[in-house]
Amino acid sequence: MSPDRTAPPGALSGIVVADFGRVLAAPYLTMLLADLGAEVVKIERPVSGDETRAWGPPYADGEATYFLGVNRNKRSVVLDLTDDRDRAAARDIAVRADVLVENFRPGTMERLGLGYEELSALNPGLVYCSVTGFGTDGGAALPGYDLLVQAMGGLMSVTGEPDGSGTKAGVALVDIITGLHAGMGVLAALRHRERTGEGQRVEVSLLASLLSALSNQSSAYVAGGIVPRAMGNRHPSIAPYEVVEAANRPLALAVGNDRQFAALCRELGVPELSGDPRFATNPDRVAHREDLLAALDAPLRTRPAQTWFEVLTAAGVPCGPINDLAAAFELADGLGLQARVTIRDPGRDQPVEQVANPIRLGATPAAYRSAPPRLGEHTDEVLAQFGRRPGPLDATP
Predict the structure, then answer these.
(1) Is 175 annotated as catalytic?
(2) For the segment 67-118, what is each residue's pLDDT rounded down to a tens digit?
(3) Taking the model in full, what pTM does it have?
(4) What is the CATH number of the domain that holds 363?
(5) Which CATH number do you get for residue 302?
């Protein structure tokens, strides 16, 4: 399915992206750029394509939902980068692009003749974005899989129960964070090019992105010399800010200041706790966390979680039930967030259901022009667009 040319132009309309990315971090980045109007050409290997085409179950209409989730609004071109003719075609696309995104192991694109130095000599305005696992120097030989970075980058050490061996997040969170950081870098580089005409290289690693995203935990170490440890659902610097037990099921309670704590105590029927010297301020509550939770436990168990959610929310105390994804999307729908979108493709028996782009722009909204592409669906079309006749790949006009 070719892009819907009737869709309104997006903020990045006119920007051409050569997407050599696979799996998650880079494809997530290029999908966001595509949602915002960029024309993304996804270059895939023959036969198998992007690895995530085979990452299932689950499937939707025979296609891996993993792949479907990060590849809409793109065109797929099959090229064998180990073949001289295919590599020349890939170079033709790259030197005519505004942005190139790749996440091969460091050095791979250079060996293929598709490195930044070679391509920028042909296209000085090229924004060349490399996503790596551990950087391009000492970590070049390390494979950049999200699980490994969560483990080696410290995230698992602060996730899970205190007596556990470390727990990964329930999604490839580091890949997503890195894709977002890379997107910021690409947009900054495009703005620089707009002012100067100069492209540049953008480098983002999974490890550095994770260390930045660990935020207060990283700051505790860098600024305070403290090595944080896993605390289950508790927060190292705020209390009560954790999962508590209501009468029928758990409830997330996020008390961020003294006023909220006083309101919590009042609604629980124990107003005297807010005046207790052990709990008067947040540092006091953190220091006496166990005593605090023991004092709150019995009152919280007197009502169901939904009742507490309604009562405490009305009183200005942040809290909420622990939803599964079905309930989470129901919540988003009820709030009018339009968190999902349906893309219809005449080449498919069923419409493709997608999670909507969360960026809401008033003048240039995200658009859903085409479903995730079939492998090689647009090879002839794209090669013709970039100066090669359909047929033998070394045939030029």
Answers:
(1) yes
(2) 999 999 999 999 999 999 999 999 999 999 999 999 999 999 999 999 999 9
(3) 0.91
(4) 3.40.50.10540
(5) 3.30.1540.10
